[in-house]
Amino acid sequence: MATVLFCPVTFNLAETTRMIQVARALDPRHDAVFLGYEPDFADLIRDAGFDYRACRPSWSREERDQALAFDQGRAIRSPFTTELVSARVAVERHLVRETGAKAMVTGSNLTSFISARAEGIPLFYPVPYALTDAQVSAAVHMGFVSGKGAIARVADRVATAVFRWIYTTAPLAPRAFTRVAKANGVPPLRTVGSLLTADRNLLTEMPWELEGIDLPAGFERVGPIFAHIDAPIPAVVEELAREDTPLVYLALGSSADRRLALTLAGALGTLPVNVVAPIRHYLRPDDTVPENIHVTDLLPAHRLGGLVDAAVIHGGQGTVQTACATGVPFVGMGLQPEQTWHVRACASRGNAIALSRKDAGTPAFLDAVRHVLADPGIRLAADEVRDAYEGADGAAATARLIEAALAA
Question: Which CATH number is correct for 3-127+174-224+392-407, 3.40.50.300, 3.40.50.80, 3.30.200.20, 3.40.50.2000?
Fold first, then answer.
C-alpha cells in the first residue's frame, strides 16, 4: 500500500474532476490524498470521499484569472511571486513527508513540478496534448490566424514559430520558479514549456487525435478522462426530455464568463428549443434569462446521452469528451488554443461544428445550432464517435501506470 498525492488546481473544474477520476481508478489498497489552494471545486473532492487538505496561500479572483491565462498560453505575466511559490513548495513538500506519498499527480499546479522533484518522487501529469511541449515543439500551424488562404496560412506559420520560441526556448518562466527551484535543489525551470512538463506526461486523447504524431520521450497516450459527477439527473431534465421540443445542453465549464453565458442563453432563447444550462456559477442573482433556458448547478453530464439532442459547449477537453462519449452532436467555441484544437478535431470527424467566441449570439451561431439539431450526418458521426469511446478509459490507464511505478 502507498499514498498518492493529487495536486489539482481546484478552481479549474476539468482538472479537479480529471484527478478525481484517476483517484477512483486506483487500487483501493492505495490511499489518495488531495491538496488544493482555492475552495471553488474542493467540495467535489470531498463528496467523492477523498481526503482533502485545504492549503495556503490562496489567490484572489483576479490572480486566478491571471494564472489560468498564463497556463493556457494567453498571457506571459503571471501571479507567481517568489514568496507564493516558495510557500506553496514548502507546504507541498511537508505534505509529501507527512503522508509518506510515493508519487504525485498534478493538473497544472505548477509548484508541484518543483515539489515532486525536490522530494524525489515521480510526477504524473494527465493532460490534453494541445499546448504541451510535445505539441508546441512539433506544430507547424496552431491556428492563431484564422482563414484558409495562402496569406493566412503563412501568417499562422509565422505566429506559430514565434509562439514556439516563446514557449520552448525563451527564458520567460517567472523568475520565482528559477529561484525556488534552486533553493530546493532542483534544476532551474527557465522556459514556459519546462514549467509544464512532468516525469510522465499522460495524454488524454483518443488514438485518431494523435495519428501520425511521434511523441517524444516522457509522453504517452492514456485515453480520455472526463467528469463523472456523482449526482442524480434533476427532474427538470427528464421532464424536458419527454417533450417533443428539442433539448439543448449549454455548458461552459470554468473558463468562460458571465457575458458569454448571458449572450449564448439569450441567443438560444430565440430558438424553438428547451435548454438545460449548468451556468448558475456565472450568473448574478438579478440576471434574467429567457423562459426556455433552465439554469441549473453542475450536472452529471455523462448521464445525458439519450436525453439531450445537441449541446453548445466551450471546448474544454472534459466537456468535449463527455459529448463524444454520450453521442451528443455539438457546437463548440474554443476560448483558447487548447480548446480550439479539440473542437476542430471533432469538427473534422463530423460530430461537431466549430465556431469562435466572436460568433456567440450571431446568425452564424443560430444556424450552427439548427444544423446540429437537424443534420442526420452529424448525428450519425456522433453515434460513431460514441461507439469508438466505448471501453476507452484514460483514468484506469493512468492508475495502472502509477501503480506500476509504485511497485518498481
Answer: 3.40.50.2000
> Phi/psi at 34 (nearest 5 deg)?
-110, 145
Query: pLDDT tens digits, residue range 373-389?
Result: 999 999 999 999 999 99
Q: Is 147 left (phi over 0), alpha (psi -120 to 50) or beta?
A: left
CATH fold match for the domains 3-127+174-224+392-407 and 235-389: yes
Which residues face 332 on adjacent strands? 313, 354
Grid cell of 212 as nine digits:
501520425
CB 193 within 8 A of CB 168: yes
Confidence tier at 67 by pLDDT (50, 70, 90): confident
Rg (CA), the chain: 21
**C-alpha–C-alpha distance, residues 310 and 247, integer Å:** 7
- Size of the chain, expressed as the number of residues it contains: 408
Q: What is the pLDDT of residues 303-352, one digit of tens each?
A: 999 999 999 999 889 999 999 999 999 999 998 888 999 999 999 999 99
Contact indicator for 36, 45 with CB cutoff of 8 Å: yes
Asked if residues 351 and 326 have their Cβ atoms less than 8 Å apart, the reply is no
- For residue 6, the number of C-alpha atoms closer than 13 Å in the C-beta half-sphere is 28
- Cα 136 from Cα 133, distance rounded (Å): 5
- Cα 86 from chain centroid? 26
Query: Cα separation of 238 and 240, whole Å?
Result: 5
Cα–Cα distances (Å) from 247 to 136, 264, 346, 384, in that order, read: 38, 15, 21, 21
Name the residue among 118, 119, 94 with its Cα closest to residue 33: 94
> Rounded distance, CA 191 to CA 163, Å?
12
Q: CATH homologous superfamily of domain 235-389?
A: Glycogen Phosphorylase B; (3.40.50.2000)
